[in-house]
Amino acid sequence: MQTYKKELKPYLYLGIFLFVIGFGIGNFFWLLPGIDYFSKTNYLFTKDILTYIEQTFYRFFITPSLLGFSVGILGFLLGLLMYVRDNDRGIYRHGEEYGSARFATPAEMKKYEDLIPENNIIVSKHVKISLFNKRLPIKIRKNKFKTIKKRHLFRCFFYFINSFPDLDFVLFLPLGYELVQIRSF
């Protein structure tokens, strides 16, 4: 068995690329003309911003600044976070068959058989399956009703409606201890 591992190299390249982009964006805001945050923000919305970017574009990537390094490190960590995010730690058996399914023995299939032979569907020489779910033992039935305590009754109401598509409507008993199935004939 071999545990799946993601390649780290592409995510390191992504982290380095995001570091460079973040460093440039951080320096762009650091080097904007103005002495405080508000004057730099106001300069962003003037018509001189395009000429400023054309004249000083190279400086965004070569000037060291605290804001540039901080945004660059955040970009690098974002690239590494993408590596960690979906790293599947499941165990896979490469080259082997999936699952552990096996064929049931005739003795195991005997429990799905009805006691009356006319009520069975013949699947194979040794396997017969009952046509009627209600005639099977309660442990192997599908879509069985359960009794619920009163305090859980209203919480489970919509769950029961969705669980039993053949239900016409639900009737609450005055005591509130059971759900009663009523079918139209």
- Summarize the biggest pleated sheet: 2 strands, antiparallel
Q: Quickly give the structural class.
A: mainly alpha
Distance between the termini: 57 Å
Low-confidence stretches: 147-163, 167-185
Mean pLDDT: 76
Order of neighbouring strands in the sheet with most strands: 1-2
For this structure, the quaternary state is: single chain
Work out the number of β strands: 6
Question: How many helices in DSSP terms?
Answer: 8
- What's the order of the H and E elements? EHHHHHEHEEHHEE
Using the CA coordinates, give the radius of gyration.
Answer: 34 Å
The percent range for helix content is 40-55%
What would you call the shape?
rod-shaped
Query: Which percent range describes the beta-strand content?
Result: 5-15%
Describe what you observe in this structure.
- By secondary structure, this protein is mainly α.
- The strands form three sheets. The chain has a two-stranded antiparallel ribbon. Strands 3-4 form a two-stranded antiparallel ribbon.
- Helix 1 packs antiparallel against helix 5.
- The protein is rod-shaped.
- The protein starts with a strand and ends with a strand.
